Amino acid sequence: MVHISELIENGKVYFCDFTSRDDLYAYLADDLYAQDYVQDTFLSALKEREATFPTGIIATCYNIALPHVDAVHVKKNALIIAVLNHPINYVRMDKLDEQIHVKVVFMLLIKDISVHTQAISSLAKLWFNQTFMNAVLSVKSKEELVALVKQAEAE
Predict the structure, then answer these.
(1) Of 17, 67, 72, 146, whose CB is crowded by the most CB atoms within 10 A?
(2) How many distinct structural domains can be found in the chain?
(3) Residue 35: which CATH number?
């Protein structure tokens, strides 16, 4: 079983002031590449996948996005979370003609494809936990978020 807390411990948490998805993706891709999380092909792959398979999701408390790329563009398994100070427009995953305002981006970096489906399933359980989702917006550090996820995973 995949523990989301481990993927976050392997990953990063960002608190962002970006107002566009392109600016957010460019910043994340540059930083993740500099820290050896992803290949140099990551940004173009991320934009291409988002255009083909939108990732906006209406969740319990607020809208989220789950962008990800094929494993060939990733160097290690991790969960990157971007808490947005300003909602960013994403196309809905289930209604391609509708845009939604997203407050939190859960970016899966999965090198091991067998982990991918388990990670999405584990994340989905958290997204429907109202207490967890409300708390995500108030965390101030990666350590706080890991503790919050561990508590939710234990429930």
Answers:
(1) 67
(2) 1
(3) 3.40.930.10
